[in-house]
Design a protein that fits this description.
alpha/beta, Rossmann fold, eight-stranded antiparallel sheet
Length: 715
């Protein structure tokens, strides 16, 4: 029943927001013919963008605005109205809502500002009154203090001269200025948008509502977000997680510095939140985080134009020797793998021109190829078809010592070759062309004319073009990381949650380990078997020795009841162990068996969290294992926790010398322990429904840390 109600609300929310982007009529209240007023510009946006519905300017002092009949008030407009753009003063908005109710308006866009962002208590109170009145009337609000919507397909815009060619990128922006800049500059790079919304103070419709809409919107395949603060961080995080399983989300966070955080309050009355929590939210939800507008646009270009990338083996071609060397460095620094030329490519080189064997490598230097028996297009083709290369990056020849005729012919031929290779769609392909940052007088120069024409040709062929190898490699690497993580998350087995009235929701070991794994904590991968046969088959697949642990909703301490069997070495042992462990459960309900690889011995540690009624989440760290409650060598700290605080926790346990190497054992990596504790802190700060976490044991060896068992209890 609860699920049905939630689905109905989501459906109603989608229908409402979709009606904004696909309205049949818009009224501009406060429309004007005064060129310095927003009422004038919003009329112009609609008219110049070719809005397909009816436009009704409302102004008591005008008979006509921009050749459209004007109305003294909204109630005088004929028929009902879908969408209202409010350009009037804040104190007039409550009266406008009464008029909107009579005209069956679905949504009001409040361009109007000077509400809670001013810090004025009276303005804040007025904002609350407006919300209460709108909710009573069943009218949804965008804003206040925002630029509203951009929907090319419907002919709606929030700025002048924006591209009205629709595409597959959707956007959610708390700032109207940022929204306009992203759309304008990304359009110059060939990115086309489905819908973008600037939502300002988020008095009613907020970032979570809008992300829920774009998650469901079939026209949107890539989402970008500029956000200063979230109204409901937990809800926003949950929607981020489910959305990124379906489509990429790129997030740019405003208010990272102390000055930026203060500015967000005066801009949209948002609380910026702690950077660590936002990092954790993005990392755990597989959201791609951009550091600035320029990087966000590079990422939009990459995600809009490249297919899914599941490996980072990269081939580089073009440019001169020095540029190729620098390109290889920048690709490797970005996390791409610049491999040796695969065997099939080497064989091709030997066959075509033996003198090139051992000379040509990756990057493939065009200056060498041009003096050989190998044609450039042949080399491009063999690289694009090689199964040993997953990504092909071309460095356009931007400069050489030739005159206008030869250089223009050379660059045109190179561009034609790139377009031919891209049309094969054999693998992800991108081009790097520098950004010369031309002065207006430079545009007439023959070299820059040829350069800009080359850029345009590549862009019209839907080839992603980047202004440097560094930015291009970074964007491509993030595309690969997103799809690789997406594939990994999709393969994680799902086990139903179990509930008890007194202690809330207990996650099974598999669920708990999945949760902390998503938080970046290394776990011993665990598989779920419903039957004895499945348990034996999984054991054989994983490889002996293995461990069996019972999965039962009423058993939390499995070792205490004999619900764990270690060091299972054969299939026969696995069958016997299954019988033994299930028998130990007695009358308890059994879901099945958790099966995992037996981990080599190491130092056993414990980490966890419980909520203190005064201080909130308290992190715990210490010496772990089955005797943790007897030894009691643990230390606590209030979350959130940074790296320095984590190191202090580690040095605060009684038996810390064990970590430094004891009686012939090698020391463990304390930096890795600190990282684990910080990740745990980020996770509990983000997931407020978590009541208790117990990760025990964590096996620590010089090779690293592995969480072998885990338990999570929710509210």
């Amino acid at each position: 029943m609860e699920s049905d109600q939630k689905n109905q609300k989501t459906s109603e929310l989608f229908t409402t927001i979709d009606s904004i982007f696909n309205s049949n009529s818009v009224a501009v209240v406060g429309a004007s013919d005064e060129t310095f007023s927003f009422g004038f510009h919003f009329m112009r946006y609609l008219v110049d963008s070719g809005y397909k519905g009816n436009i009704f300017p409302v102004n008591p002092k005008k008979k006509e605005i921009l050749n459209y009949q004007a109305y003294a008030e909204l109630t005088l407009v004929p028929g009902n109205i879908d969408y209202v753009i409010c350009c009037i003063r804040a104190d007039l908005v409550t009266t406008l809502i009464d008029q909107c109710l009579k005209k069956k308006v679905k949504v009001i866009h409040l361009l109007t500002g000077r509400f809670s962002e001013t810090g004025d208590p009276e303005a804040h109170e007025l904002e609350k009154q407006i919300l209460a009145k709108a909710q009573k009337a069943g009218i949804r609000l965008i804003g206040p203090n925002c630029m509203g919507i951009y929907a090319p397909k419907s002919g709606i815009s929030f700025n002048h001269d924006l591209s009205m060619e629709s595409g597959k990128v959707g956007g959610i922006c708390q700032s109207g200025g940022v929204a306009g800049e992203i759309v304008r500059y990304a359009s110059l790079r060939g990115v086309k948008f489905s819908k973008v919304i600037s939502y300002g103070n988020a008095l009613d419709l907020n970032e979570s509502d809008l992300l829920e809409y774009f998650y469901l919107d079939q026209e949107t395949k890539v989402i970008f977000i500029y956000i200063e603060g979230a109204k409901d961080g937990l809800r926003f995080f949950k929607i981020l997680k489910k959305t990124s399983m379906k489509k990429p989300v790129i997030l740019l966070k405003g208010g990272k510095s102390s000055a930026g955080q203060k500015a967000t309050i005066s801009h949209t009355a948002s609380i910026a939140g702690k950077e660590g929590a936002w990092d954790a939210a993005c990392r755990q939800s597989n959201t791609i985080r951009a550091s600035c507008i320029d990087e966000l646009i590079d990422l939009l270009v990459a995600f809009d134009k490249l297919p899914a990338i599941l490996s980072k083996k990269t081939g580089i071609i073009g440019g001169g020797g020095g540029k190729g060397i620098l390109a290889a460095d920048e690709c490797e620094n970005a996390g791409l793998n610049v491999i040796d030329l695969p065997d099939d490519v080497e064989k091709f080189i030997v066959k075509k021109d033996p003198s090139m064997s051992g000379w040509l490598g990756n990057p493939v230097d065009f200056s060498i190829v041009s003096g050989s028996k190998i044609d450039t297009i042949e080399m491009l083709n063999i690289l694009s078809l090689s199964p040993g290369i997953d990504i092909l990056l071309a460095i356009l020849t931007e400069d050489n010592p030739f005159d206008e005729i030869f250089w223009t012919e050379f660059i045109n031929k190179e561009v034609e070759n790139y377009i031919k290779i891209a049309s094969n769609k054999s693998k992800p392909f991108a081009v790097v062309m520098g950004n010369p940052r031309l002065n207006i007088s430079d545009v007439e120069n023959w070299r820059w004319k040829a350069f800009l024409k080359a850029w345009k040709k590549l862009q019209e062929s839907n080839i992603p073009v980047f202004t440097s190898t560094k930015t291009g490699a970074n964007a491509i690497s993030k595309v690969a990381e997103f799809y690789m993580r997406m594939e990994k998350r999709a393969s994680i087995p799902q086990v139903p949650e179990t509930k008890q009235e007194k202690i809330g929701t207990i996650l099974s070991e598999i669920e708990a380990k999945q949760a902390i794994s998503n938080a970046g904590i290394a776990v011993n991968k665990t598989f779920f078997a419903k039957t004895k046969k499945e348990a034996i088959d999984l054991s054989e697949k994983i490889g002996f020795p293995v461990v069996f642990k019972i999965v039962a909703p009423t058993i939390t301490h499995k070792t205490d009841v004999g619900g764990v069997c270690l060091n299972i070495k054969t299939s026969k042992d696995a069958g016997d162990a299954y019988d033994k462990v299930t028998a130990a459960a007695g009358e308890n309900e059994i879901f099945g068996m958790a099966v995992q690889k037996m981990i080599p011995q190491g130092i056993e540690l414990v980490a966890g969290m419980s909520r203190d009624p005064q201080f909130g989440p308290m992190l715990m760290f210490g010496i772990g294992g089955v005797h943790v409650e007897i030894i009691k060598d643990v230390i606590f700290a209030i979350a959130p926790l940074d790296k320095e605080g984590a190191m202090e926790m580690i040095s605060g346990i009684k038996n810390k010398q064990i970590l430094n190497g004891f009686r012939g054992q090698e020391p463990v990596n304390k930096e890795e322990i600190a990282d684990l504790l910080v990740k745990l802190s980020d996770y509990v700060m983000l997931n407020h429904e978590i009541e208790e976490i117990d990760i025990n044991p964590i096996i620590a060896t010089p090779a690293g840390l592995v969480a072998v068992d885990a338990r999570i209890i929710k509210h």
